[in-house]
């Protein structure tokens, strides 16, 4: 926001925030001076003066202030002037409904692991359980929530603030201690700045710098904080030692209550302001702390770009949105002040009239008048003085009725205007209402409107989400001495020990746990009973158990639920562990070995295994197969011993280990007794077998002799047959060989004869060819002779 935009804000509280330079360059930080913060705070308190005055009157309405502030003079002292408590009743009813929404769920928040993993539900349940444990370690959480709800309902906002950057706890800040610009919207994320005022005792302020090294890392100016603490000393403390920090530090370390009670409170202004955006990224939120009464220009704490969003430091808890601006939001107190004050005054006028109607009027005829109206009391009789002649009775009914009627009319107007805080119960005329009409009227008077409920849940979601973000921060210092940071680290370790991967924390979303009934115990019981009556048989087993727990919780409260439902909350991880133990029993029954894994829960597994072993012992006692069951018990005992060895290393489980050890000894004794029984049975069987063997020796010898002779004859016959078969086979092979040889010789002879015949034929052909060639040659010679004339051919 540039300097040219400052004029649009009616309070002018932006003048100290640096704007863009003439070249459009943003400053490194928009506040660089502690004096600028003090200036902003001074003008903010001045702008809020009328609001504070109005809120003081509103507060007096429920604190018991009478409606007539100046009826103290003699002429008015006889008039009735008291607070009828109706304003407090309106406030209590509405606050109770919101507190019920916060406190009645079995866990404050529900964490959901938004991952594509078959174990996502298991991870969600584990983190939810341990995150609820963490929040219940904060013994001031309930106190802060109640203060926040009170201011939200009565004034319109009930802010909660995170005082330290790493601490997961939030603190309720009084409505009157928050200052924002007139033109800020009713949306914390859009705030440009806000200022909180705190009044700290010196020991409370010292807590921030007790670990000086850690304090400097967090942005604290340790020397300036020490100076503010020492400046808070009383003027009567003139001893030089109180000018030296060593004396203060020793007294503070000793938790000197006298020191804290004698010193003045240190007034602190904490400002959160939005920086300019850098390179198009979302603007960061910086933080600064200033001693309001100091004269130096030093910050007590300043940390630039500390938060990514204003909601990481503040949750405003608006009751409604007004017309969209922060200052337009009005709570119950402002809305009911004028009407309720007028109504009380009318009621008091009716009280005065009623007193006047019931008064006896005496008339005196004496000139001295009032002085003559003295009487003398004789036991039950009263003697009036002389001069009192008549007794008059006045009827002021006509004065009383208009006041009562107008008071009732204003009451109806109040009920209509404030129905969002407390639903009005209509009183029907005519016949008495039925049971269902009464139930409907109770439901109407005890519930929050859906809009108010949804808005409150949304803001609780934001608060719990920020708490979870801080508690799951992977960068928490591991060697911290801070109690609350150590608890956050323990929360992370509990989740890791139960098998939740580290990266799951970054993919979780957190919501306040919802309950039925819209803030009404009556409506919650009605809705749960309806589900029980109509849907209980169709619910799965875990759904049935959850419904029963919710019904008990709605009746006696979550803190007493386990008193009546001893099974405990539904734990999917425990169900998986039980199932795994049951699977192991099948392996152990066959005498197999089962190795334990790091993620197994020793308590759950030992509980299931000892139940199974006890059933095996009982089965033997009832006549089961001793040998078969003994082997499974031996395998089971060996597996249980592995769990016992690991459990013994956990110092926090000494009591459970001792209990399991007693069971282990009992089971081992039973197994040893079974082993003795098996040994006795084996010895008896050996003796019986020996006797039977001796009785059958002779019979066995003759039988063996006959069997040997038969076997020998059979062997001889089989041998002769084998010899004959071998000889026959050999003869047949020789004959086959001879036949084959003869065939080969004959085939070779035939082939040679054919070759000789072919050679002779060829020779004859060649001789004929030679002879023919000679004839041809002779003929050719004859043809070549010369012709002689006259010679005949």
TL;DR of this structure?
With 793 residues, this protein is α+β, with helices and mostly antiparallel strands.
Structure overview:
By secondary structure, the chain is an alpha+beta fold. It is built from 23 helices and 14 strands. The strands form five sheets. It has a five-stranded antiparallel sheet. The protein has a three-stranded antiparallel sheet with strand order 3-2-9. It has a two-stranded antiparallel sheet with strand order 1-14. Strand 11 and strand 12 (381-383) form a beta hairpin.
Sheet with most strands? 5 strands, antiparallel
Q: Roughly how many Å apart are the termini?
A: 152 Å
Helix content: 55-70%
Strand order of the largest sheet: 4-5-6-7-8
Beta-strand residue fraction? 5-15%
Form type: elongated
**How large is the radius of gyration?**
53 Å
Tally of extended strands? 14
Structural class: alpha+beta
Overall pLDDT metric: 79
Number of helices: 23
Quaternary structure of the protein? single chain
Unreliable spans:
1-12, 423-429, 787-793
Q: What's the layout of helices and strands?
A:
Blueprint: H1 34-47, H2 49-63, H3 86-103, E1 109-113, H4 120-136, H5 141-155, E2 160-161, E3 171-172, E4 178-179, E5 193-200, H6 202-207, H7 212-217, H8 222-231, H9 245-253, H10 257-262, E6 266-274, E7 285-291, E8 301-307, E9 314-315, H11 332-357, E10 360-364, E11 376-378, E12 381-383, E13 388-393, H12 397-417, H13 435-446, H14 450-471, H15 483-497, E14 508-512, H16 521-535, H17 541-556, H18 561-564, H19 572-589, H20 602-621, H21 626-647, H22 654-695, H23 697-784
Antiparallel strand pairs: 1-14, 2-3, 2-9, 4-5, 5-6, 6-7, 7-8, 10-13, 11-12
Helix pairs in contact: 2-11, 3-5, 3-11, 4-15, 11-12, 16-17, 19-20, 20-21, 20-22, 21-22
């Amino acid at each position: 926001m540039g300097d040219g935009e400052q004029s649009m804000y009616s309070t002018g509280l932006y003048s100290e925030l640096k704007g863009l330079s003439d070249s459009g360059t943003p400053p490194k930080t928009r506040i660089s001076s502690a004096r600028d913060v003090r200036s902003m705070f001074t003008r903010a308190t001045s702008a809020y003066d009328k609001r504070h005055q109005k809120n003081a009157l509103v507060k007096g309405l429920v604190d018991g202030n009478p409606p007539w502030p100046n009826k103290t003079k003699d002429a008015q002292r006889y008039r009735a002037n008291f607070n009828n408590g109706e304003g407090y009743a309106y406030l209590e009813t509405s606050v109770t409904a919101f507190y019920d929404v916060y406190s009645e769920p079995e866990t404050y928040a529900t964490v959901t692991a938004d991952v594509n993993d078959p174990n996502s539900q298991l991870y969600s349940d584990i983190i939810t359980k341990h995150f609820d444990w963490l929040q219940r370690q904060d013994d001031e959480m309930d106190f802060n929530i109640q203060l926040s709800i009170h201011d939200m309902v009565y004034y319109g906002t009930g802010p909660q603030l995170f005082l330290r950057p790493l601490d997961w706890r939030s603190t309720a800040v009084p409505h009157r201690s928050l200052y924002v610009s007139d033109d800020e919207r009713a949306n914390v994320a859009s705030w440009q700045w806000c200022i909180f005022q705190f009044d700290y005792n010196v020991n409370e302020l010292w807590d921030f710098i007790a670990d000086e090294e850690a304090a400097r890392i967090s942005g604290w100016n340790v020397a300036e904080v020490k100076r503010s603490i020492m400046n808070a000393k009383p003027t009567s403390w003139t001893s030089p030692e109180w000018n030296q920090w060593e004396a203060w530090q020793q007294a503070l370390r000793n938790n000197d209550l006298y020191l804290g009670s004698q010193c003045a409170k240190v007034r602190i202004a904490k400002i959160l302001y939005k920086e300019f955006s850098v390179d198009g990224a979302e603007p960061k939120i910086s933080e600064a702390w200033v001693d309001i009464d100091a004269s130096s220009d030093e910050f007590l704490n300043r940390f630039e770009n500390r938060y990514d969003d204003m909601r990481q430091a503040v949750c405003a808890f608006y009751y409604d949105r007004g017309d969209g601006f922060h200052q337009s939001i009005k709570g119950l107190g402002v809305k009911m002040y004028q009407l309720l004050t007028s109504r009380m005054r009318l009621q008091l006028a009716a009280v005065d009239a009623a007193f006047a109607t019931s008064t006896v009027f005496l008339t005196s005829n004496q000139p001295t008048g009032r002085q003559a109206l003295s009487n003398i009391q004789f036991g039950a009789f009263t003697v009036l003085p002389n001069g009192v002649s008549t007794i008059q009775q006045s009827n002021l009914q006509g004065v009383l009725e208009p006041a009562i009627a107008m008071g009732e009319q204003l009451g109806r107007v109040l009920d209509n205007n404030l129905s969002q805080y407390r639903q009005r119960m209509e009183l029907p005329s005519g016949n008495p209402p039925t049971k269902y009409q009464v139930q409907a009227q109770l439901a109407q008077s005890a519930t929050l409107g859906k809009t108010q409920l949804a808005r409150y849940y949304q803001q609780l979601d934001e608060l719990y989400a920020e708490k979870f973000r801080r508690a799951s921060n992977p960068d928490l210092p591991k060697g911290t001495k801070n109690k609350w940071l150590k608890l956050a680290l323990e929360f992370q370790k509990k989740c890791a020990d139960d098998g939740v991967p580290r990266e799951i924390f970054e993919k979780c979303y957190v919501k306040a746990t919802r309950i039925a009934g819209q803030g009404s115990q009556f409506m919650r019981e009605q809705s749960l009973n309806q589900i029980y009556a109509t849907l209980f048989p169709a619910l799965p087993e875990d759904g049935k158990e959850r419904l029963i727990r919710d019904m008990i919780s709605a009746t006696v409260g979550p803190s007493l639920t386990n008193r009546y439902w001893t099974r405990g909350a539904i734990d999917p991880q425990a169900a998986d562990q039980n199932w795994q133990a049951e699977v192991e029993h099948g392996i152990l029954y066959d005498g197999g070995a089962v190795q334990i894994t790091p993620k197994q829960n020793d308590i759950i597994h030992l509980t299931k295994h000892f139940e199974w072993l006890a059933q095996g012992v009982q089965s033997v006692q009832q006549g089961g197969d001793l040998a078969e069951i003994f082997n499974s018990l031996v395998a089971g005992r060996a597996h249980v011993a592995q769990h016992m060895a690991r459990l013994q290393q956990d110092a926090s489980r000494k009591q459970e280990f001792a209990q399991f050890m007693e069971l282990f000894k009992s089971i081992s004794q039973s197994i040893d007794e079974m082993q003795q029984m098996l040994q006795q049975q084996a010895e008896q069987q050996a003796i019986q077998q020996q006797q039977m063997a001796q009785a059958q020796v002779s019979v066995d010898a003759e039988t063996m002799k006959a069997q040997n002779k038969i076997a020998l004859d059979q062997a001889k016959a089989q041998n002769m047959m084998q010899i004959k078969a071998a000889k026959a086979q050999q003869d047949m092979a020789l004959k086959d060989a001879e036949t084959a040889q003869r065939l080969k010789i004959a085939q070779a002879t035939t082939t040679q004869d054919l070759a000789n015949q072919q050679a002779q034929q060829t020779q004859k052909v060649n001789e004929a060819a030679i002879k023919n060639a000679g004839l041809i040659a002779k003929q050719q010679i004859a043809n070549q002779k010369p012709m002689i004339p006259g010679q005949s051919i």
